[in-house]
Design goal:
By secondary structure, the protein is α+β, with helices and mostly antiparallel strands. The chain has helices spanning 49-63, 81-106, 131-140, 148-151, 159-177, 204-213, 221-226, and strands spanning 2-11, 17-25, 28-34, 43-46, 110-116, 119-125, 144-147, 182-187, 193-198, 219-220.
């Protein structure tokens, strides 16, 4: 029935994270809201007094299933309208903020909810979001209760993209290594290039010595990245 749209973040006067957006009821905008940049009360502006009252009734239902900061149930029947509205908006905005953070993490890999040391936690695994990787994670960690990528309706990463992302990550790692070491390849037992690392910085003398030691040397990554 109610949802937040147009969610944006900004920093408060002390650099703390704040949020703002619009509140919709059945697809119709009914209010604008924003955290205070100075740590004060949340700013909420409804389109009408009636819209505020309707949301307050919704807030009673929403908060009846939650607890306050002291772990006590909210006393929704005695809370004034402004407190119901602000508390419910805070709860909804926190949920949106968490979902947005999860969505960003899902771009980095697979995000799951699982039990860690007896407590439910969100955990990010830096693995491509593929059916095979999800199945492997569930088999290895039976305590997984949710795959957030799946909950958010995100598509699986294609085999082509997984290979491209892996290649890009490897290149980034080798490019960094080449700043202080000599990185090269030689044929492996299977005939495919095998990466080798020499702790010495790359220069013509080191290159000559390595070619003498490895007559089948294929390539110096240092030369590739210097081009």
């Amino acid at each position: 029935m109610y949802e937040i749209k147009g969610y944006k973040t900004f920093k408060g006067h002390e650099g703390e994270p704040c949020g703002q957006g619009n509140l919709y009821r059945d697809g119709t905008k009914v209010a604008e809201w924003s955290d205070s940049s100075t740590g004060g009360s949340m700013h909420i502006r409804f389109v009408s007094r009636e819209a505020e009252k309707l949301f307050a009734e919704h807030a009673k239902v929403l908060l009846a299933t939650q607890k306050d900061f002291e772990g006590e149930p909210y006393k929704v029947d005695t809370m004034p309208i402004y407190e119901l509205v602000e508390t419910a908006m805070f709860a909804m905005s926190c949920e949106v903020a968490e979902k947005e953070a999860m969505r960003k993490d899902c771009k980095k890999g697979i995000v799951v909810r699982q039990t860690v040391d007896g407590k439910p936690e969100a955990v990010l695994y830096h693995l491509a979001y593929t059916a095979a990787n999800v199945a492997a994670l569930k088999a290895k960690h039976p305590s997984i209760t949710e795959v957030v990528n799946e909950t958010l309706g995100l598509p699986f990463v294609s085999a082509e993209k997984e290979a491209a992302d892996k290649a890009a990550a490897e290149e980034k790692r080798y490019r960094k290594m080449c700043k202080t070491k000599t990185v090269f390849t030689i044929p492996g037992e299977d005939g495919k290039p095998m990466v080798m690392v020499c702790p010495a910085s790359f220069n013509p003398r080191v290159a000559l010595a390595l070619r003498a030691k490895h007559p089948t040397l294929l390539e110096f990554f240092n030369e590739r990245f210097a081009a």
